[in-house]
């Protein structure tokens, strides 16, 4: 499976967001990663429906919505209507995860589950066949630019092994501290979707940074 690049617009220039979205359209980016934070589940607040509605008409790429919020079930339909292609919720935020996943699919989106750095992969054993995507957080969620957590490699190997026979088409996404230095190792460990924020938008040539992640 060819790997996908999903630049996180959390690191984009919100003073000129349209320009950055147009750059992503021209680039080899596959998705646009959209981080939603509520200041409760994670210690930061980002953006929500109004920004998603503004971005959707500007982009030619699917929008990968990552909900770092409590009670995600209450907002699934609205994010789907606003333009999400994929919606990922956190295992740690969902009391009835199977019901949440079915709600995402019923809203017309593909469904993902994110795991915080401390959450073991085997917690997904009973739901792995229902998922389109699993997002492994390689930093503690909430802020960009953090240091990559080395145990991520083991979690990717474990997830690849778990999905091998039961869900071989599973997209394995990794988010946090991704750069040219570690992207090849992450792909070898089992990732096939790379989320990159600061390493793209802080680069002198963001489109070239995306190209390098796409062709490590």
Automatic annotation (TrEMBL):
Keywords linked to the UniProt accession: Carbohydrate metabolism, Cobalt, Isomerase, Manganese, Metal-binding, Zinc
Protein name: Ribulose-phosphate 3-epimerase
Role according to the record: Catalyzes the reversible epimerization of D-ribulose 5-phosphate to D-xylulose 5-phosphate.
Cofactor note: Binds 1 divalent metal cation per subunit.
Species lineage: Bacteria, Pseudomonadati, Bacteroidota, Sphingobacteriia, Sphingobacteriales
Cofactor: Mn(2+); Co(2+); Zn(2+); Fe(2+)
Gene3D superfamilies reported in the protein's UniProt record: Aldolase class I (3.20.20.70)
Species the sequence originates in: Mucilaginibacter arboris
Active-site residues per Swiss-Prot or TrEMBL entry: 35, 175
